[in-house]
C-alpha cells in the first residue's frame, strides 16, 4: 500500500520534470540550440563566415544523432553561463572545463575532452625570463581571456604578476606579439600554434602545460533527462573513436587552415 501511494503522488512531478526537460523542449521545437564562444580551433569562422571547429563538429553530430536541426548561438565567454541560465540556448558546447565554482550554477555531463593550459611569451619583452617562476614578478604583464580557466590558472600560477584580461584572445595575442605584454596564458593548442607561426617573436617557457582539466557540456540544473541523453551520447561517440578522430584533426594537424585563411 505504501508503495502504491508514493507512486501516485510522485508521478505528476516526474511527468512535469520530463515535459520541462531541455531535451524534450528541443524535440518539440525540432532544434537544438547550442551556446559557444570562439576559440581556435574549438570554434571559429571560415572564409564564408560559417562556424567550423572541434566544438562545431561535436554539436553538429549531436544534433544529427538526435534528429534535430542545429542552431549555433555565439556568445561572449564572460556571459555564457548567465545566457544558458536565462534560456537563450539549451546547452553549452564550448570547451568549458569542469570547475567547482561553475558546478554551483550548472550541471556538467561526463567529460568528452581534456584541456591543457600553457604559456607563450614574447622573445623581446620576456628576454632573460627562462622558467615559469621568472614570470611571477610584479614587473611582468600576463594576459588571458576574461572568465576562462586560463585566467584562473594565470592568477594561481603568477600571483605577483600584473594580470590583464580581454574578452577575446585575438587582442591578447597582439599584446604579446607587440611586446606590450610578456606572456599569454591560454588553452592548448593556441599557444603552440602561435609559437609555430611566429618563431622569431614567441617562445614557450619550459614547454610544459600549467594544468590539465576535464571538459564537458553544461546544462541547467534539475534536468536529469537531458543529462542522461547527453552522457550516453558522449559514451557512444567515445567508444566509436569518433571524438578521438575529430580531436586529432583539429588539434594535431593544420589540415583545416585552408578553411579559415
**What is the 3D form?**
elongated
Q: State the total count of DSSP E strands.
A: 13
Average pLDDT: 91
Rg to the nearest angstrom? 21 Å
Count of helix runs:
11
Please provide the ordered H/E string of secondary-structure elements.
HHEEEHEHEHEEEHEHEHEEEHHH
Quote the distance from N terminus to C terminus: 69 Å
Q: Largest beta sheet, briefly?
A: 6 strands, mixed
Q: Give the structural class.
A: alpha/beta
Low-confidence parts: 1-6
- Beta-strand level of the residues, as a percent range? 15-25%
The residue fraction in helices comes out at: 40-55%
Throw out a few tags for this protein.
single chain; 261 residues; alpha/beta; six-stranded mixed sheet; 11 helices; 21% strand
Description:
- This protein has helices spanning 2-20, 22-29, 54-66, 80-85, 100-103, 149-157, 169-178, 190-197, 224-240, 242-252, 257-260; strands spanning 31-36, 44-45, 51-52, 69-74, 91-92, 107-108, 113-122, 141-145, 162-166, 183-187, 202-203, 211-215, 218-219.
- Helices cover 42% and strands 21% of the residues.
- The strands form four sheets. Strands 7, 8, 9, 10, 11 and 12 form a six-stranded mixed β-sheet that branches. Strands 4-1-5 form a three-stranded parallel β-sheet. Strands 2-3 form a two-stranded antiparallel sheet.
- It contains eleven helices and 13 strands.
- It is elongated and about 65 Å long.
Condensed summary:
Helices cover 42% and strands 21% of the residues.
Amino acid at each position: 500500500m505504501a508503495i502504491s501511494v508514493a507512486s501516485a503522488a510522485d508521478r505528476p512531478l516526474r511527468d512535469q520534470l520530463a515535459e520541462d526537460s531541455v531535451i524534450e523542449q528541443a524535440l518539440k521545437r525540432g532544434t537544438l540550440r547550442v551556446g559557444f564562444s570562439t576559440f581556435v580551433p574549438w570554434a571559429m569562422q571560415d572564409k564564408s563566415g560559417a562556424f567550423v571547429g572541434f566544438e562545431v563538429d561535436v554539436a553538429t553530430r549531436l544534433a544529427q544523432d538526435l534528429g534535430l536541426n542545429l542552431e549555433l548561438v555565439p556568445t561572449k565567454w564572460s556571459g555564457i553561463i548567465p545566457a544558458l541560465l536565462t534560456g537563450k540556448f539549451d546547452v553549452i558546447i564550448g570547451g568549458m572545463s569542469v570547475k567547482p565554482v561553475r558546478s554551483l550554477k550548472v550541471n556538467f555531463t561526463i567529460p568528452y575532452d581534456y584541456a591543457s593550459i600553457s604559456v607563450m611569451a614574447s622573445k623581446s619583452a620576456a628576454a632573460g625570463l627562462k622558467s615559469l617562476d621568472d614570470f611571477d614578478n610584479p614587473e611582468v604583464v600576463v594576459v588571458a581571456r576574461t572568465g576562462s580557466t586560463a585566467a584562473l590558472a594565470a592568477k594561481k600560477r603568477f600571483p605577483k604578476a600584473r594580470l590583464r584580461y580581454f574578452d577575446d584572445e585575438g587582442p591578447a595575442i597582439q599584446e604579446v606579439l607587440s611586446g606590450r605584454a610578456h606572456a599569454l596564458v591560454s588553452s592548448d593548442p593556441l599557444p603552440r600554434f602561435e609559437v609555430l607561426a611566429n618563431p622569431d617573436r614567441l617562445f614557450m617557457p619550459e614547454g610544459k602545460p600549467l594544468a590539465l582539466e576535464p571538459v564537458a557540456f553544461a546544462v541547467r540544473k534539475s534536468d536529469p533527462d537531458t543529462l542522461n541523453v547527453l552522457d550516453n551520447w558522449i559514451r557512444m561517440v567515445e567508444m566509436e573513436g569518433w571524438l578521438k578522430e575529430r580531436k586529432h584533426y583539429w588539434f594535431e594537424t593544420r589540415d583545416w587552415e585552408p578553411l579559415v585563411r
